[in-house]
Design a protein that fits this description.
Dipeptide-binding Protein, domain 1; single chain; 33% helix; Dipeptide-binding Protein, domain 3; 3 domains; seven-stranded mixed β-sheet; D-Maltodextrin-Binding Protein, domain 2; alpha+beta
């Protein structure tokens, strides 16, 4: 081979390699998602994957306004008990099944009636849904539901292929079929999830990458090292301690958005035998732990002051936050007095936490604070999806776990605190709280809704099935070659219009 031919071959090889490299976007996730079935799923990172895999009926703007996606428009009846949606006529599922009104009916039916569905409480107000045209659906409600559009902008509104759902049943989680801009290729647990571009998507031209590769890397330090080395192009949930370093790195860029959600400690109060402890059965013991924790110190020590201390399901920036009940100050003497009132000199509690450095550091700080009040905490570091499985099964005393937050306040509280809530792993149950949270759903008056939430939260601050700790800020880091990324308060990664130089 001549030198010229050799150089030509080498240049062609480099060009092909560069093209293939640019065609992929590798995203580092803090955890491995749970089931890739929109009805069974509950993890935040799962929603990140679904954002590219599964179109929704409704989406949101960065300002949290609702906008069309698979539904092109919608209209409420005068009494707000009927919702009629017009649908796209140019969408198709990844298996070739057309997207139409019958597909929506099948999806809502599955979400409401599948035994394993976690969407039931989110759609509890829907009495029926009918195809009133080839691309028109009508939801009939049992009562007005101020939350329904918000629910349809999340997993309850994500559309699965009815053909695939009927054929695969629960195995759909291993081979999901949606209608989003990317389709499922493979998943290797704890290693990667691969999606490839769906050429027949109605907006395929807005998506630049041929493949998306999601890589779960729980260790924040390792995740950032992979970004710096070029093995990742983007990561979610940058550690707060690394923000300054990323901002000062000319090869990287940084983005952030205030979260709608919370982090806390979910307590097993009624979920099987593990709840039958003083911690699970006596609210005074839970109150003692809450009083032993200095939330402002946590924010400064663990999160470099980038987060907000919290004691409610809504962040202080939310209009739904109860300003009359700010975060309580730490009071170790009061915590000890509550334990004594409960007849205890001290108590031991096992709290499971995700096996990433940030959450484990958080728990170590809480462990130290609690010990001063006579509460000995054993920390059980657990892979995230496994941790949630244990929690659902009742195989836990308490879990340090959070929620990414929802546009409507109902999404931060109803599924967790109502007796039949799909995410109520503590199995807390109060008829009074149920009545208040159900009333908040049916009112379209913001003042009435807020009064219901304030009343419910007053009870929950006393009972503490969840001990709220803080509200995080979503932090992203990415190669400076990644262009066009917009941060959203829901923490999702939306890739329409995103490119890589």
């Amino acid at each position: 081979m001549t030198i010229r031919k050799l150089m030509t071959a080498l240049l062609a090889s480099v060009a092909m390699t560069s093209g293939a490299f640019a065609a992929d976007l590798r995203i580092g996730l803090q955890e491995d998602p749970d089931a890739l079935d929109t009805d069974q799923a509950r993890t935040f990172v799962g929603r990140i994957v679904f954002e590219s895999l599964c179109d929704k009926l409704v989406n949101i703007t960065p300002e949290l306004d609702f906008i069309p996606e698979l539904a092109t428009s919608w209209e409420w009846s005068e009494d707000a008990t009927t919702l009629t949606m017009q649908l796209r006529d140019d969408a198709v599922f990844h298996d070739g099944t057309p997207f139409d009104a019958e597909a929506v009916v099948a999806n809502i039916d599955r979400s409401k009636n599948l035994a394993e569905s976690r969407r039931k409480s989110e759609l509890a107000s829907v009495a029926s849904v009918a195809a009133t045209g080839s691309h028109e659906v009508t939801f009939t409600l049992t009562a007005p539901d101020a939350t329904l559009i918000a629910q349809l902008s999340d997993r309850a509104g994500m559309m699965l292929s009815p053909t695939a759902a009927a054929e695969k049943g629960l195995d759909l989680a291993n081979d999901p079929v949606c209608s989003g801009p990317y389709k499922f290729v493979e998943r290797i647990q704890q290693d990667r999830i691969v999606l490839e571009k769906f050429a027949d998507h109605y907006d395929a031209g807005s998506y630049s990458f041929e493949r998306l590769i999601f890589l779960p890397i729980p260790d924040t330090t390792v995740r950032l090292a992979n970004l710096r080395s070029g093995d990742l192009h983007m990561l979610e949930r940058l550690a707060p301690s690394d923000v300054a370093g990323v901002q000062g790195d000319g090869n990287l860029s940084f983005a952030s958005a205030t979260s709608q959600g919370y982090q806390g400690i979910t307590v097993n109060v009624n979920n099987g035998a593990r709840s039958e402890t003083p911690f699970g059965q006596d609210k005074r013991v839970r109150q003692a732990l809450s009083l032993a924790i200095d939330r402002e110190v946590i924010n400064q020590v663990v999160f470099e002051g980038t987060y907000a201390a919290g004691n409610q399901p809504f962040p202080p920036t939310s209009p739904w936050y109860d300003q009359t009940n700010p975060v309580q100050a730490r009071d170790v003497d009061a915590a000890k007095a509550l334990l004594a009132e409960a007849g205890l000199d001290g108590i031991s509690v096992e709290i499971q936490a995700a096996n990433n450095p940030v959450q484990l550091q958080l728990m170590q700080v809480i462990q130290s604070m609690a010990a001063e009040a006579g509460i000995e905490i054993a920390i059980k570091a657990t892979e995230f999806a496994t941790m949630l499985q244990e929690q659902t099964a009742g195989n836990y005393d308490a879990t340090q776990v959070g929620w990414s937050g929802r546009t409507d306040p109902d999404g931060n509280i109803h599924s967790f605190m109502t007796c039949a809530g799909g995410l109520n792993d503590s199995k807390y149950c109060s008829e009074e709280v149920d009545a208040l949270l159900n009333a908040a759903r049916t009112s379209i008056d913001p003042a009435e809704r807020k009064a219901s939430y304030d009343a419910a939260n007053a009870i929950l601050r006393e009972e503490l099935p969840i001990i709220y700790l803080y509200h995080q800020t979503w932090l992203w880091a990415m190669s400076n070659k990644v262009q066009g990324f917009t941060s959203y308060p829901d923490g999702m990664i939306r890739l329409a219009g995103v490119t890589m130089e």
